[in-house]
Amino acid sequence: MNTWPGGKRHAIHQYEHEKWNAKNYPGTRQLCTKCDEPTGRCEEDALLDEETGEPLCEDCWKKQEQEASRE
Length: 71
Prior knowledge:
The protein is mostly helical. The protein has one domain. It has two helices and two strands. The protein is elongated. The N and C termini lie far apart (about 35 Å). About 10% of the residues are buried.
């Protein structure tokens, strides 16, 4: 599970963000719950699993959409 510096969610400078992520993998990176790869997104623009509401990467989200359209 991702954590924030000091345990509180807050804005940080890019250089602080990079430093935090380097020491605390995955840091504040959002990881796909299906394949564990970084999503490249944040909470505001996340692609979510329809069943669990957890974040997905674009590839896993597309697979989910294709499977749903077949039903």
